[in-house]
Amino acid sequence: xxxxxxxxxxxxxxxxxxxxxxxxxxxxxxxxxxxxxxxxxxxxxxxxxxxxxxxxxxxxxxxxxxxxxxxxxxxx
Length: 76
Prior knowledge:
Elements: H1 2-18, H2 25-34, H3 36-52, H4 57-72
Helix pairs in contact: 1-4, 3-4
């Protein structure tokens, strides 16, 4: 699961930066603006994990799956 998440994070970062004419934080801001609904959904999942205190495997699996959705939903 950690490996999946790490791969998704790397792929997402690359997609965000490659899909923009800007670099760094401005590129991320542009992407977040374009993908507001997906980002809001991911933020809610992370908030739920924090509230759970000790998330179980199923909850973590949902978070990793949602990270993969973000990766594929770059708008590029």
